[in-house]
TrEMBL record:
Gene3D superfamilies: GntR ligand-binding domain-like, Winged helix-like DNA-binding domain superfamily/Winged helix DNA-binding domain. The keyword DNA-binding applies. PANTHER family: TRANSCRIPTIONAL REGULATOR, GNTR FAMILY, UXU OPERON TRANSCRIPTIONAL REGULATOR. This is DNA-binding GntR family transcriptional regulator. It comes from Kaistia hirudinis. One of its GO terms (molecular function) is DNA-binding transcription factor activity. Keywords: DNA-binding, Transcription, Transcription regulation. Coiled coil: none annotated. InterPro entries: GntR_C, TF_FadR/GntR_C, Tscrpt_reg_HTH_GntR, WH-like_DNA-bd_sf, WH_DNA-bd_sf. SMART domains: FCD, HTH_GNTR. Residues 4-71 form the HTH gntR-type domain. Signal peptide: none annotated.
Length: 220
């Protein structure tokens, strides 16, 4: 049980570092170095890396080592397509079901995002972004669906984290969330859905530049 618990913690730590670009695409990951850093044996580190490989976040080369996987464009496109299909439907339902308390919670989250964007606190902005979307799922009564999408979203999140200020400033995210909230507050399911669709499609804007100019993207 201790090994499993350690492996889970290591998995979550490395997953977060990859998503937030602390560990960059094509960086080498050494089991021994991670084990020493965290004060554990190599067994839970190896288990965590195998899970990350299954998720597509690392590439393991037998006898050669492990590297952080490049951002794979096809995975990003697939994740965005599925997320759009689900969240556009969810926000339409939430627009009809959200109560005053939920709308106030969403408004607070948008205000906090505006502050984070003004400070250039990208990590906090993304935390608040996740909270905003989860609150919409909860308002529609489908929070469990949000949890099911977590592994899928990880490929989108990698792209979002490296491109939040390129070419789309963080302030744009706040504006897009404001438009979603406005549709919900007006009980206008169509307007909320249209704003959500535009918001979720905007993340794809950097893909063409990324694939041409940066070695951290791969087409397959």
């Amino acid at each position: 049980m201790k090994t499993r618990s350690a492996a889970q913690g290591i998995y979550e730590l490395l997953r977060g570092e990859i998503v937030m670009n602390v560990l960059k695409p094509m960086d080498t990951i050494r089991e021994a170095a991670i084990a020493e850093r965290l004060g554990v044996s190599r067994t839970p580190v190896r288990e965590a890396l195998l899970r990350l490989a299954d998720l597509g976040l690392v590439d393991i080369y037998p006898q050669s080592g492990t590297r952080v996987a490049p951002i794979r464009i096809e995975k990003v496109r697939a994740a965005q397509l599925i997320r759009e299909a689900v969240e556009v439907e969810i926000v339409g339902r939430a627009a009809l079901d959200a109560d005053a308390e939920t709308l106030a919670r969403l408004e607070t989250l948008v205000d906090d995002q505006r502050i984070a964007a003004g400070r250039g606190d990208i990590r906090r902005l993304f935390e608040l972004d996740e909270a905003f979307h989860r609150a919409i799922f909860a308002a529609a009564g489908f929070l469990s669906v949000s949890e099911e999408l977590e592994d899928l979203r990880v490929h989108l999140d990698r792209l979002r984290y490296i491109s939040v200020a390129w070419p789309r400033p963080a302030e744009f995210i706040v504006r897009e969330h404001t438009a979603i909230l406005a549709g919900m507050a007006a009980r206008d399911a169509a307007a909320a859905a249209a704003a959500m669709r535009a918001h979720l499609r905007a993340v794809l804007a950097p893909l063409a530049i990324l694939s041409q100019d940066m070695p951290q993207a791969a087409s397959g």
